[in-house]
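In the previous chapter we treated chains in isolation. Here, by contrast, the input contains three separate entities that must be folded as one system, with a combined length of 1149 residues.
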Amino acid sequence: MSLSLRIPTPARLGYSFNWTGRIGLAIILFWAVIAFIGPWLAPYPPGEMVDWDYFGGMSGQYWMGTDYLGRDILSRVLMGARYTVGIALASVVLACAGGVLLGMIAGVVGGWFDTLLSRLLDAFNGIPSLLFGLVVVAAVGSSIPVLIATLAAIYLPGSYRFARALAVNVNTMDFVTVARARGEGFAYLILREIFPNILGPVLADLGLRFVFIVLVLSGLSFLGIGVQPPHADWGALVRENIEGLSLGAPAVVFPSVAIASLTISVNLFIDNLPTRIRDRSE
Amino acid sequence: MLRSATTWLLVGQRLGIAAITLLIVSFAVFFATELLPGDVAEILLGQAATPEAVAGLRTAMGLDEPAIWRFLSWLRGLFTGDLGMSYVNNVQVSDMLAGRLANSLRLAGIVTVICVPVALALGIASAMWRGSWLDRIVSVLTISVISVPEFMVATLAVLIFAVWLGWLPALSFGVEVDSLGAMLRAYAMPVITLSFVVAAQMIRMTRAAVIETVNTPYVEMALLKGASRRRMVLGHALPNALGPIANAVALSLSYLVGGVIIVETVFNYPGVAKLMVDAVSTRDLPLIQSCAMIFCISYLLLITIADVVALLSNPRLRR
Amino acid sequence: MTEALVSVRDLRIGAVTDSGRQVQIIGGVSFDIAPGEIVALIGESGSGKTTIALSLMGHTRTGCAITGGTIRLGRHDVTGMREARRAALRGTEVSYVPQSAAAAFNPSKRIMDQVVEVTEIHRLMPRDQAEAKARDLFRALALPNPDTIGARYPHQVSGGQLQRLSAAMALIGDPSLVIFDEPTTALDVTTQIEVLRAFRAVMDKSAMAGVYVSHDLAVVAQIADRIIVLKGGEIQEEGTTEQILNAPTHPYTRQLLDAFEPVPHVPAASPGGTILEVRGLFAGYGAVRNGEPAAKILDDVSFRLERGRNLGVIGESGSGKSTLARAIAGILPAYRGKVRFDGTDLHPDLAHRSKDQLRRAQIVFQLADTALNPAQSVGAILARPLTFYHGTKGAARDRRVIELLDMVHLPAALRHRLPSELSGGQKQRVNLARALAAEPELILCDEITSALDTVVAAAILDLLKELQRELHLSYMFISHDLSTVEAICDEVLVMLKGKVVEALPATGMRDATHPYSRLLISSIPQLDTGWLKGLEQDPELMAQFMRR
């Protein structure tokens, strides 16, 4: 029991979040729950045309109005949460897991392995993210697994670089030297000595990367090369209904509000994390 | 200022890395577009493809040659300005790009000219009066802008300036550009949108760079010498923050590359990005490749400039 | 008695912690400073000495605020005035010499611009007059090339010179009070002497009063007229320097003084053969070319340590003493030479040593803060070597952890805490206990008492001696502090630029023959107000061994 991995949780170290951070967290949790149970909450089937009028305004029947085909926007936004949050979460977890693992290995091993990997991934970073998405989709076509893989590939190098810098720092600490002098193996050094000490900043970094991924995913969908109809994430909902913009239709406003509420609250939450967790995040 | 040989060596190393990166990027762009999809000839001929027609087209396009050979000749083409023929409308890609590139560069140029002074002033001011109402408003605004997708800033601009206020047309180039006023109106929306996106980044990074130097012991020492807040920030912190700020400016400008793709699409602006998005929908590979390379080169250029500036501004490397 | 220049009454300073809790860091401090008098604020880390000194300028660091009391400086009420008025006092009435001049000089501005800045801010005199005055100060502070040194950038002069330049920066506005905030703590002892001499010379000539903040009684004894002893933000004792040094009344002051008295080391009776022998050791850092690294540090180091005996290694920063410990432990593999442990040659690289070889020689590092994994509990930290070396598990391991804590005089309940919840001394004890868990025969101690306050360090030394008696250990003890080495070692190596210049018995350090060892040993401040004045050092010798 005494050997169990101890993660510095807020409760253990007496952190307190201020109210801005708490509001951020509440909104994040709200959308996370919606992503799970959204389809059961939807008042209408998201794909069904329920109104003869298109770009209908807000009403008691259709809380967020209707879209260009007369579908219920509330239902489509609730369903869209699943795509936006789900795809972004899957990508960010893939990107960070890969990046952190490779980063720790490179940071500890050093030498030519580190140099080669760092150069290669830096070169990858030299491609603007939206452009990378465009090229890949142009090449292999768009589907949800392709989107997840592409987004993860876009953000893996950044996560790698971040984790590597942290790992290099921790690696020079005396407690790692002590463990090495004790004769500990590579896996122990990485998992027990280094990983627990970079976890805080890495999680904060994961949050920031999640925001970037939501932004790029929405951007791709907005350009028509993200989530494909009949499915629609929030970015695709904006694209579908962009014609309604000049009418000021709620159909284009509410998906936008959904995206903004998610990304802004993640940013607020991370900005208000106690500095001891955030201290090395960009 | 004099700099030591090692500094120039490091700068040279940075440039070398950029060149290698460019090579890797071009490799990736070429193979992503050339190798992964199904047969280009089949795509081009569509439903009407007979095996003989496909084979004929393949030979005509040189698709039978080894991939690496095609890559090298493509790369040579890039250097000599021969970007190949568009699959879709049989025009030289370089001809299609020429006017579009000028349009995009003009847009980027105007945005840069507007953003840099505004962002620097706001970034430095909010760092100088940290915690003041100005700082708070700027912080909330910038975090909001960088938290939302570019297309939302664009749609919001349309909602406010075109729909509610009715000052500007929603689409830039649907309207006739016959006078200076009309041209200003045409450029206004894309410029406003892009400026917001880029300036928000730049303000945040500038503010962070100045604050980092404000927290150093030598600025505290200036305080203990009786210096005013102005003198502490402008006289002591700023000279040391110049490198990080220049770095921040170059890095923020690289957001132009992503932003321009969205903005040109939203406003139907006839630039390279719009051309590329259209090319993606028609799968016009030579055009996609060329556009992608243009973006990658400008992006790499900006982040390399940022790197080099950061290097040159390090006072420890000064002789 | 003339009217006091400074009078502080019931000063209270509060701070807000990370978790938003209000704490008081200075609790009701009152004292006076007469014109021209130098008063020392003495205390350990956390005693609030720097906080009090800065408050005399009306300045508190971020998160702190003056919550009560008054500070009067001349005819100014520092606590009652607005920030702009305080700024007008800084540099002209009261000025500040920082702990680290290297950090306090703006790297992008020339030294002269920064030294005369005070005259510019307060419009005291024209620029050429200010520069002439600065050059006079440079001369008075015995700086080399006083006419041209101002044209350099801060990174182009040495640390000792920068420290003196920062004094010039503080003196140029002719303040009535100068605050010295641990100005020699970051310097090597031989450099410290020069700087102290320069400070004394200018303060003796002028009529300025001074506040000298330090943790080192011996340094303060050379410069202060009066000493105020602080602990936990409160005054423990106040008196003239002579009275504090010779007739302290407060038990805490006595404790501080006692820590200075080296307790003579009684060598263990039974030297049982050689435990460690180092022959012709070379080691360094950087890329290896032709079998030699780019930066060579250790240069042909040889010595022998008998079982049950202790070897001290002294030298200034950069002398290679820590590198020696790392090379012996195999953390930094030596590229030439031999390390023999108990009769068998050890492989230079620890990766090729057997688990048992690693177990028998343990290394303990200077900063207990970075030597303990902040994410593991004390129990987990101590349990790991037990499992790793001895395969101890379950209840037996828990018992052994408690035993180890008991050995270093820590309560068993501490095993559930994280390192961040411990004090500096407690961390260093856990650090030691982890080495003991391996059941070693030799412990390499790398500056293990240097980061600790004197009283705590003295307790750790006592613990080391006790452990040695019980467990028949041998220590290799690396330190820059002579009295510590005197207190625990049998033999001492003096190192300079990677070489051993002399090996001496610890009791005979005052009889060193090598000129550098004599310089080094004579530079250690003594608890005697006349020490600096009476100190005769050969200037040629100084020039020969001083770095720059």
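Chain B has a mean pLDDT of 79. Chain B touches chain C at residues 216-228, 231, 236, 239-240, 315-316, 318 (CB under 8 Å). Compare these points with the single-chain example from earlier in the chapter.
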